[in-house]
Design goal:
By secondary structure, this protein is an alpha/beta fold. It has 13 helices and 14 strands. The longest helix is centred in the first third of the chain and has 17 residues.
C-alpha cells in the first residue's frame, strides 16, 4: 500500500473576529438585577448577614452573602423551578435579563450560530446534600428523586438556557473552581472570534450557601469567622482579614461578533479585548507565594489583547480577603505593571458581594464593564488597617468609589487547584 503525500499550502494566519458585549444580567447579594447591583457597588453596600437558609448556630461561620428578597416563582413557573437546583435557577434568571437587555429578534437570529457556555465551580451542591441526607435518614432503601442527577450536574444550567431560547450552537459548562465563569467568558469569546458562533450566552452561577458548603469551607479554614460583625468580615487587603465570605448568585453576558451586532443595531457596552489563562502548579488551595500564576495570567491576557501594561487603567482583583491570596495578587500586580501599578485603580468588589466562587468572574467582569460605561470604580470597602506587607502606594480604591475615565480594565479570578483566568474589557474605540 502506497503512502499519499499531501502538499499543504501555507496560508496567512486567520484574521480573528472582534467580539463585543451586548447584554448583561446579574443576580447578586447586593442587587437582583443590573441596576440594583451597580447601585450597591458604587454605594459600598455589604451583602453579608446571618444565614437564613438553615440553622447555622453550631457552625464556626454563621453568616454569608445570600440573595435578598428573591423569589424564583417571580421568574420561573413553580413546577419547572422544582426541577432545578438553585444554581440553575439563578443561571436562568440572570441570562433572561441579559437576553432581554440584548434585545434580539429571535425570529431572525440564526440559532444554529448561537450557543451557551456557562461556569459553575460546584453545581448542584444543595440537591446532592438533600438527596444524601434523605437516603441516610431511611432504612437503606434507595429512594431518590428522578431529577436528582439532572438537577445536580454542573452543565445543566447551560442546557436549560439553550432549551429556553432554542440555541443550537456550542453548549457546555466550564469548571475551574473560582475561575469557572471567567473561563466560560474566555471560551465564549474564543468560539466567536474563531468563527464557530456569532452569539454566545455566557457567565456563571453558584449556590453553595448550604450545610455542606459552609461546613466544607469552614473545615479548611477558608472562611471569615467574624460572627460579631458580618458586614465588615470581607476586608480585602486589610491587615486583619481572616478569610472570605461565601456568596451566591449569577452573572450573565451576551457576547456577539462585532459586525453581527452592528448589523442589527445593537447597543454595545464594550469590546472583549483578550483573555489569559495559567496554572500555579503549586498547591491545591494555596496560591503561589510570589504570585507566579497570577503574574503569568495577566501577562498572557495582555499578550492576547495586544496591549501594553501601561494601557490598563485598573484591575478588578480576585481579592478574596484571605491572608495569603491578597498578598500574592498584590505582588503579581507590581511585577506585571511596575511603576504604572501606582497610577491604576485596583479594587475588590468581593468586599461587598462576598465570594461567589464559580460565578465571581462573571459578576466582576460585569462590574468592570459598568465602570467603563459610567466612569466610576467601585470601592474596596471595610478597610480599617493597612497591611505593612502590602505596598501602601497601590490605590485599592478603599472605602469610597472613585470617578475615573477608564478605557481598559482587567478582571482576575483564581481558583483552588491553581487555576487562573483573566479577562480584559475595553471601550470600543481602543
Amino acid at each position: 500500500m502506497g503512502f499519499v503525500c499531501l502538499k499543504i499550502k501555507n496560508t496567512e494566519a486567520m484574521e480573528l473576529r472582534r467580539v463585543v458585549v451586548t447584554g448583561l444580567g446579574a443576580l447578586t447579594p447586593i442587587g437582583n438585577n443590573i441596576q440594583e447591583y451597580w447601585d450597591g457597588l458604587i454605594n459600598g453596600v455589604s451583602g453579608a448577614a446571618p444565614i437564613t437558609y438553615f440553622d447555622a448556630s453550631k457552625f464556626k461561620t454563621q453568616f454569608a452573602c445570600e440573595l435578598k428578597n428573591f423569589n424564583v416563582e417571580d421568574f420561573i413557573d413553580r413546577k419547572e423551578a422544582r426541577k432545578m437546583d438553585r444554581y440553575a435557577q439563578y443561571a436562568v434568571v440572570s441570562s433572561t435579563e441579559a437576553m432581554n437587555d440584548a434585545n434580539f429578534d429571535l425570529e431572525k437570529l440564526d440559532k444554529d450560530r448561537a450557543g451557551v457556555i456557562w461556569g459553575s465551580g460546584i453545581g448542584g451542591l444543595e440537591t446532592f446534600q438533600i438527596e444524601v441526607l434523605n437516603f441516610a435518614a431511611g432504612d437503606g432503601t434507595p429512594k431518590f428523586n428522578p431529577f436528582f442527577i439532572p438537577k445536580m450536574i454542573g452543565d445543566i444550567a447551560c442546557g436549560h438556557i439553550s432549551i429556553k431560547y432554542g440555541f443550537r450552537g456550542p453548549n457546555f459548562g466550564t469548571v475551574s473552581a473560582c475561575a469557572s465563569s471567567t473561563n466560560a467568558i474566555i471560551d465564549a469569546f474564543n468560539y466567536i472570534r474563531l468563527g464557530h458562533a456569532d452569539v454566545m450566552v455566557t457567565g456563571g452561577s453558584e449556590a453553595a450557601v448550604t450545610i455542606a458548603g459552609m461546613g466544607g469551607f469552614n473545615a479548611m479554614h477558608a472562611l471569615s469567622t467574624r460572627n460579631d460583625d458580618p458586614k465588615t468580615a470581607s476586608r480585602p487587603m486589610d491587615k486583619d482579614r481572616d478569610g472570605f465570605v461565601l456568596g451566591e448568585g449569577a452573572g450573565a453576558l451576551i457576547l456577539e461578533e462585532y459586525e453581527h451586532a452592528v448589523a442589527r443595531g445593537a447597543k454595545i457596552y464594550c469590546e472583549i479585548g483578550g483573555g489569559g489563562m495559567s496554572a500555579d502548579a503549586y498547591h491545591i488551595t494555596a496560591p503561589h507565594p510570589e504570585g507566579l500564576g497570577a503574574r503569568n495570567v495577566m501577562l498572557n491576557c495582555l499578550r492576547d489583547a495586544g496591549l501594553k501594561p501601561t494601557d490598563v487603567d485598573g484591575v478588578n482583583m480576585h481579592g478574596t480577603s484571605t491572608p495569603l491570596g491578597d498578598l500574592a495578587e498584590s505582588k503579581a500586580i507590581e511585577q506585571v505593571f511596575g511603576d504604572h501599578a501606582y497610577t491604576m485603580n485596583l479594587n475588590s468588589t468581593k468586599s461587598m458581594t462576598g465570594h461567589l466562587l464559580g460565578a465571581a468572574g462573571a459578576i466582576e467582569t460585569i462590574s468592570s464593564i459598568l465602570s467603563l460605561k459610567y466612569g466610576i470604580i467601585p470601592p474596596t470597602i471595610n478597610h480599617f488597617t493597612d497591611d505593612e506587607s502590602i505596598d501602601p502606594k497601590l490605590n485599592f480604591t478603599f472605602n469610597v468609589a472613585q470617578k475615573r475615565d477608564v478605557k481598559v480594565l482587567m478582571s482576575n479570578t483564581f481558583g483552588f487547584g491553581g487555576h487562573n483566568a483573566c479577562v480584559l474589557v475595553k471601550k470600543l474605540d481602543i
